Amino acid sequence: MNRKRGMAGLLGALSRRQFMTGAAAVGLSITAMPKFASAAEEKKLNFYNWDTYIGETTLEDFKAATGIEVKMDLFADNSELFAKLRGGNPGYDVIVPSNDWIPRMIAADMLQELDHSKIPNISNLFPRFMDEPFDPGRKYSLPYMWGTIGIGYRKSAVSTPPDSWKVLYDSNEYAGKIALLSDCGTMIGCALKYLGYSLNSTDKAENEAAAELIIKQKKNIKSFADDNGQDLLASGEVDITMEYNGDIAQLMTEDDDVGFVLPKEGGIIWEDTLCIPKGAPHPDNAHAFINYIYEPEANQLITDYIQYATPNKAGFDLMPEEYQTNPAIFPPDAAIEASEVASYLGEDVVQMREELCTKINAA
Average pLDDT for consecutive 10-residue bins of the chain (363 residues)? Predict the structure, then answer.
């Protein structure tokens, strides 16, 4: 998944910059120096993150508060992150993998256990995020942002607001104006949801049925998008697209003709996490950085810029009502209940789905 946060357009970016400038002018009530930052460690932190997936001033604000200078490198997707660490940690202190990669990284002995006592701002999180199936007890990861994958659409181009994956997978109503995400697990997973199966199905026949559904629909699909469905929607190349809710929510701030829905069959719930990799050269600084991100005001600035759903209640409470009540960011409870968190299903299933996607691409 390619994070394009906070860059939806000049107007939205400008309003966020103005907000943050004002915040800096009055001063943020952020702890001056996290007491868990080690005096013995050099005041440096190496951060490996998605592109534009942090507040515009977060790293500078953290340095001002702690004296710790952050160097941030960027990765394009989870595969690149995993490959970078597979041969050993090249020097990163904090990384941002997605939920379904956490079990793989734990199994590969890539992550160190977190010391929750050094992250007291954990108390600012919504309690429901503190015990996830992919990391029981949150021993290795803590939540950064979360969201859903559903349907973005142009209101003036649809006969009725779409409420089902059918419009993407099993209909010619919008032939030639449809985009699906090209990621194999996502594309097949949402097809499984439409067919009434689990997103995390390991059954070969069910996965094959999902692939056949996509092959049959290919003639109506304009693009298998590399996480740029929002751009295709904005340009008018497509009228309906599978996309991450935050990318569509950003577009909605600029274009009143764009909407987002989480289908009635349910979609994918994802979570990006904060982890400390094994061999981190500055582990105390890493704990201090995570703790800082959970400060209410710091989290608000990140959330305001990224425009994704924050797991931080204290930060959420500081956000404006239009954010808190935006159904593109926080879909209705019924749709959330029908949705699933993508799980790591093992290399055999990953391989099976990759083979099915090769078949889809070749059809």
Answer: 38 30 38 53 95 94 97 92 95 96 95 98 96 94 96 96 96 97 93 97 98 98 89 96 90 93 94 97 98 98 92 97 92 90 89 95 92
Tokens of 349: 């299933």
187 and 167, same domain (yes or no) = yes
Beta strands in the chain, from DSSP E residues, in sequence order: 44-49, 69-74, 94-95, 142-154, 178-181, 221-225, 240-244, 258-261, 268-274, 340-341
pTM score over 0.85: no
Handedness of CA 217, 359, 104, 89 (dihedral sign): negative
Q: Which residues contact 92 (CB under 8 A, 6 or more apart)?
A: 46, 47, 48, 73, 85, 277, 280
Strand partners, 275: 95
Question: DSSP 3-state assignment of 201?
Answer: coil
Which amino acid would we find at residue 60? E
pLDDT at 2: 45
CB 226 within 8 A of CB 180: no
Question: Hey, what amino acid is at 62?
Answer: F
Closest C-alpha to 48, from 68, 69, 72: 72
Give the amino acid at 362.
A
Residue 8, in any domain of the structure: no
Q: How far is CA 36 from the centre of its chain?
A: 28
CATH number for the domain harbouring residue 162: 3.40.190.10
Structure tokens, 267:
């979609």
**Are 52 and 81 part of one and the same domain?**
yes
Q: What's the length of the chain?
A: 363
Same-domain pairing of 155 and 260 = yes
d(CA 229, CA 231): 5
Residue type, 15: S
